[in-house]
Amino acid sequence: xxxxxxxxxxxxxxxxxxxxxxxxxxxxxxxxxxxxxxxxxxxxxxxxxxxxxxxxxxxxxxxxxxxxxxxxxxxxxxxxxxxxxxxxxxxxxxxxxxxxxxxxxxxxxxxxxxxxxxxxxxxxxxxxxxxxxxxxxxxxxxxxxxxxxxxxxxxxxxxxxxxxxxxxxxxxxxxxxxxxxxxxxxxxxxxxxxxxxxxxxxxxxxxxxxxxxxxxxxxxxxxxxxxxxxxxxxxxxxxxxxxxxxxxxxxxxxxxxxxxxxxxxxxxxxxxxxxxxxxxxxxxxxxxxxxxxxxxxxxxxxxx
Length: 304
Description:
Blueprint: E1 3-7, H1 12-16, H2 18-28, E2 33-36, H3 43-52, E3 57-62, H4 64-74, E4 81-85, H5 91-95, H6 102-110, E5 113-117, E6 120-122, E7 125-127, E8 130-134, H7 135-150, H8 154-166, E9 172-178, E10 181-187, E11 189-193, H9 196-201, H10 207-211, E12 215-220, H11 225-236, E13 246-251, E14 254-258, E15 266-270, E16 273-277, E17 281-285, E18 290-294
Parallel strand pairs: 1-2, 1-3, 3-4
Antiparallel strand pairs: 5-18, 6-7, 6-17, 8-11, 8-15, 9-10, 9-14, 11-12, 12-13, 14-17, 15-16
């Protein structure tokens, strides 16, 4: 396979093991090429150029955020996209049934099959696993500072959750319109899932909605920091939270706005990245498909 790997050198395995990327590239074969991305890379132009040169697959080597950015640029293309597990959590690759050893995953992709899937979009921006607003985007801000000091490890990521929750005071007043029905809520966190695997890991319902090209939206009821901490501990233990801790809203299309006339932007997280997006937030499935490489033996739900 003539694969081109787009690598984020600062993601998870990439930053810890410089040889992991070389081993993964070797697994694809002699025609494999590695390109290191920088924040100013125009992915659409670069992908066009590499496909015109004969690339048979575009491979993301980084975390879920890197995969999300490349997936956005790969929508509607005939050439497939593959993802190597070289980030911190790798929910997308794990959900596809790929090995967490990069060179083993590369061999699975080299010998894999293609599937056309639709992916979630928030205000026109693609995401693969989840989007959220409230305390979780605040956690990501805190996580960046902690990563800079202690490195990119899962234990460090969990500590950023605890530290942010201890500093959280604000609950949002929102109007959530799901397939035409409006819900008025007051919550510190709205979590919108598109990964059946991630829900499975944390013991949450909603996988069936995802397989039907919908969104599983969790509105958290926590009224205090202690409530949030209890929820975080429950999820970290991979147990199902009590039903009274959240409301699950299932929908194919969502719109989220602030209650009242003022509509400031939302600090929104999607697949580990964050941005301020204008209100209302509109969530829908992509019209164009993403052609994705998966292992031949995978029986996982490939709806991401």
